[in-house]
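User: As part of a screening pipeline, I want to sanity-check one entry by hand. Below is the sequence and the SMILES for magnesium ion. Please return the complex as structure tokens so I can compare it with the automated output.
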Amino acid sequence: MKVEFLGSYVKELPQDSIKEVVFVGRSNVGKSSLINMLVGKPIAKVSKEPGRTRAINVFLLEDQIKLVDVPGYGFAKVSKEERERWKELMERYFNERKDHIKCVFVLIDSKVGPTELDRLMIEWLRYKGINYLVVLTKSDKADQRELSESLKELRKMGVQEVIITSAKEGRGKKELLKMIMETRSH
Ligand SMILES: Nc1nc2c(ncn2[C@@H]2O[C@H](COP(=O)(O)OP(=O)(O)OP(=O)(O)O)[C@@H](O)[C@H]2O)c(=O)[nH]1
Ligand SMILES: [Mg+2]
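Assistant: Here is the complex for your manual check:
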């Protein structure tokens, strides 16, 4: 799979009109790992400590669609200023890139289930009218009961369609890639 690093953005945002899909979610939920699993190489930095990714990192897949890795939310040890900066960057990103964003993948830990911040994220995307899809991560770490519980919680929030993934085991790769590649031409 052809993949290319296009850049890291902390202030200025991309100006092109290439379609993109975005990976959002709690810090440490597995955004960068999932991108690496999908493209088959360690192109996005995976951190041992949460809250490391401070910039928006952009990758171009097959010369056609961009994968966007954004900084995670909900990391307790982040200062108030940092949180404000994150919020400002995200709002600007979604406002400026709205027309180019084909889908936002909202990553949620299979074992933990949706947190309050995930709820807010989904509410906000609905309010903005941005297309999104919930992706459960790290399924290898959750047992059947935990997985069902997470799915139940999501259904309560009105989320019916979910893709279950594990970056470690490659679960969900085909399904998600198919979705991304189908997205590119619309
Ligand atoms: N067991 C298991 N561990 C995973 C999986 N995906 C990610 N991890 C681990 O979870 C930790 C965080 O992964 P990242 O991919 O850096 O998470 P992130 O969401 O990009 O984190 P930030 O950039 O800090 O927001 C790392 O230690 C990964 O090795 C998975 O599918 N299974
Ligand atoms: Mg990351």
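Points to compare against the pipeline: The pocket of guanosine-5'-triphosphate (ligand 1) is lined by residues 25, 27-33, 46-48, 50-53, 72, 137-138, 140-141, 166-168 (CB under 6 Å). Residues 8 and 57 are 4 Å apart (CA to CA).
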